[in-house]
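Sequence in, structure out. Go.
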Amino acid sequence: MASTLNLGRFPARWVGPGTRRYTEAGKLFMMITIAQVRKLCSIGAIVAALSVFAAPEVRAQAFFSPFIGYDFGGDSGCLTLRGCEEKKLNAGVSFGSLGKAGGFEQEFAYAKNFFGSVSGQGSSVLTLMSNVMIAPKIGPVRPYGVFGVGLMKSRVDLTAGDVLSFSNNNFAWDLGGGLMLFFGEHVGIRGELRHFHSFQNVSVPGFAVDNTKLNFGRASVGLVLK
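Output:
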């Protein structure tokens, strides 16, 4: 008399005592095959993920960008972006690398006489910022956003002694965005708006800045070389 032993999805049928019609070999073979397929799928997923993360690194290009602009809003002498007659020059350079969708930027900028001009009193501001860039490539155009942290120095002259000194140092953050337009593979231009804000309070003797967090905006245009 035939009987059936339920072993999940692989039933083992018996014909008479001690005789199998189907052995466990089929079940074992199927288990091994499924395990191998799962392993191959896992390896494929890991390789694909690593390829996605590694691809931007392989395609990343270094860039160098001198720029010039002016400060507005906040503690600058120019209250609005437009219609200001006393624009204070802010110039600098940035460099870094750009991949397919973003990259990294290191920026150095200097605003001479940011608070005004007083004899014997330094009033310039220097910023040194490290930024993450989100910059998708859309043909020859790259809209981008930046966010980072760094150093803001007040009352500083553009000399080696002042730049390298540890006085008047404040940690700060910046946030901004703009647009790059490339003419070929290696040369382009960019326009940008960026906001700077110190984490710590700043005091500048002789000016209307007393124990306040320094903040201002910057509008700039620049050349991009990569």
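Check: The chain has two domains: 3-56, 60-225. The first helix runs from residue 24 to 59.
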